[in-house]
Amino acid sequence: MEIDRSLIGSVSDPYVVEVEKGAIRRFAEAIGDPNPVYVDADAARAAGFPGIIAPPTFPASFRAPEEPVWTRHLDRRRILAGEQAFHYERPILAGDRFDCRVHFVEVVDKDWRSGPVELLVQEVRGSDPEGRPVFVHRRTTIYRAARGGGA
C-alpha cells in the first residue's frame, strides 16, 4: 500500500482560522441553507445563541496553509472524498479564532469491486485562544490503487 503508515499519529504545524460572518453567509448560501441564524445576529440571539453561528459542516472549509507531509506524495487523480463527521463542544460563532492542527489518525484497507483502496482518516481539531477544544472535523479520504497493479 502507498500511504506511509509510519506517520500515523503525526500532527501538522498549527494554523489559525478566524471566523468571519461573511464567510459564514457565503458557506450557508453555497450549501443552500437559508436558516437566519447563519446571517442575522438578532435571529441567532432569538434562537438562544450569543451571535451569528456557522452551519454544522463549516469546519470543512478550514484549510491548512500547507499540505500535511503524509499526503504530499499521493496522486491526486486517485483521491475520492469519503465520509465526514463533526463534533462540537459549542457552536462556532462569527468572530471566533481557532488554533487548528491536522491529525493523521489511521489507515484502513478495503477491497472494492474496482480494486483495493486505502481509507486515510484525518482530523482537524480546533481550540479557542485559551486552549479549550471547540470542534473536531473527522474526514476520510479514499485512495484508490494504481491501475494495473497494486497500491
Automatic annotation (TrEMBL):
Residues 6-135 form the FAS1-like dehydratase domain. InterPro entries: FAS1-like_DH_region (IPR039569), HadA-like (IPR016709), HotDog_dom_sf (IPR029069). It comes from the Bacteria. It holds the Pfam family FAS1_DH_region. This is MaoC family dehydratase. It comes from Azospirillum oleiclasticum.
